[in-house]
Amino acid sequence: MGQEPIMTEHIKIRALSGKWSIRAAGAVIAETRGALELTERGYDPVIYFPRDDIAMAFLDQTDKTSHCPHKGDASYFSIITKNGPIENVAWSYETPNEAVAKIKHHLAFYLNDKITIEQV
Q1: Backbone angles phi, psi at 41, to 5 degrees
Q2: Residues 25-50: pLDDT tens digits?
Q3: Fold of 6-119
Q4: Which of 9, 12, 78, 91 is the most buried (most CB within 10 A)?
Q5: Which pTM was predicted?
């Protein structure tokens, strides 16, 4: 897989260097050297983590879905913590549109007071 950014009219995807982690309620649930940054016109950049680098045992898929005309249909996940679930905090495009196929098998996370994404 090359390091060249993938670009569409509205979206750019690039591989991030270094190691990235996600903490949910203080616990590390993912660490990767394969993070992708998706930049979509009109939105803040979003970091996508490879599913294989996420402790998926702590995530439960929910019934929530959404549709993006540029990326496709998204499925949502809650993170189960010892203090209860963090509802619909992660999403994935299981069958993304061809132009953004690189985000397949990746999840992104909403940042809030219980979710931290950082380069380590």
Answers
A1: -55, 130
A2: 989 999 999 999 999 988 999 999 99
A3: 2.170.150
A4: 91
A5: 0.90
